[in-house]
Amino acid sequence: MKGLHGIIFSYEKHNDLRELTANRTPSSVPFAGRYRIIDFILSSMVNANITDVGVVMDGNYQSLLDHLGSGKDWDLSRKHGGLRLLPPFASGGTRGGFRGKMEALAGVRSYLEGIRQSHVVLADSDLIINIPLQDVYQAHLASGADITAVCTSNVDSDCDVTFFRLDGEGRVGEVLFPLRDRTGCYRSLEIYVLSKQLLLDLVDECMSHDQTSFRGAVLQAKASSLHIHSYVWDGYAAQIRSLKEYYTRSLELLDPAIRREVFPAARPIHTKERNDASTYLDPTGACCNSLVADGCTIEGTVENSILFRGVSVERGAEVKNCILMQDVTVSRDAVLHHVIADKNVEIADARTLMGHENYPMVIAKDSKV
């Protein structure tokens, strides 16, 4: 889409993902067997024919750099435009992290000035969604709004999120946070469309007053002076900001109906390729109601679980309601229930590890248990 430029915020923010973000940003946390969380919003942009995307980073981003590379796997490796990784080179890095979106944008202002497109879509990187952004852009143009905010009527969330109250014509009347009584409200999905010029004006105004929050300084402060219109998305959308949310949303993908929403054939999710052999299921093993990526070896029992590429479940081992990331080894006769094992974890023979669906056990990357 020649009229739309993508900006993804992938800097360090408060989250409760615990060990999963010890060595990476939330956006590069593995998800759904072979993807990273950032793949979903990035693929939504690519599927809308957005050819220029900037990813704003600050802190702990080596894993993200390794994953995104030149952008080739998303067809964003180009001589002009394409994928641009934007580490902090202004105010944010000197203070130990950006305080908000407006400070992050001020840190890459020179990049914003060089944007070739007339409009920009801003999005967080911790969102599991597959949304037709071309429809959002067309709705923005048709409404004549200054800012179009994507939101959902599903207000269930334990995390720090923004809520809107809409008038009868879909205009955002109030911007609220935090909020106990959510009756009649809509939850923001942190996707916004606005013109390049308005974005630059807002960045300059906010920085001149040392205002760093997009939510407070723009959405809330200017709800009456700017025309902020809603785009209500009632498809699947999950903001991954806590360990419980990560675990619950991951295992939701075992439902075929949800998988069809997240992975429709018309809008594929792209990710970094890794060539693995087909998964091997031993005649003595069993695998039921699970997502299993390529390159796995299953000789034990796997049930209601997600196995990433290269996982090995040896004979006699039992894996139930677990998420095992890339190259995890579960040795003979080990028992795992409600466990999240990060990359390259080794579980020794006959170990028993038990978590709970409301508080899964997490094993940090490269651990030996």
The counted number of beta strands is: 28
DSSP summary: helix tally: 10
Q: Which spans of ≥5 residues are poorly predicted at pLDDT below 50?
A: 90-94
How would you classify the helix and strand content by structural class? alpha/beta
CA distance, first residue to last residue: 49 Å
What general outline do the C-alpha atoms trace? elongated
Rounded mean pLDDT is 94
Assembly form of the protein: single chain
The percentage of residues in β strands lies in 25-35%
Rg for CA atoms = 21 Å
Q: Can you give a write-up of this model?
A:
The protein has 369 residues and is an alpha/beta fold. The chain is built from ten helices and 28 strands. The strands form six sheets. Strands 1, 4, 5, 6, 8, 9, 10, 11 and 12 form a nine-stranded mixed sheet that branches. The protein has a five-stranded parallel sheet with strand order 14-17-20-23-26, with no helix packed on it. The chain is elongated. The N and C termini lie far apart (49 Å).
Tell me briefly what this model is.
This protein is 22% helix and 28% strand. The strands form 6 sheets. Strands 1, 4, 5, 6, 8, 9, 10, 11 and 12 form a 9-stranded mixed beta sheet that branches. A 5-stranded parallel beta sheet has the order 14-17-20-23-26, with no helix packed on it. With 369 residues, it is an alpha/beta fold.
Describe the structure using short key phrases.
single chain; 369 residues; alpha/beta; nine-stranded mixed β-sheet; five-stranded parallel β-sheet; 10 helices; 28 strands; 22% helix; 28% strand; elongated
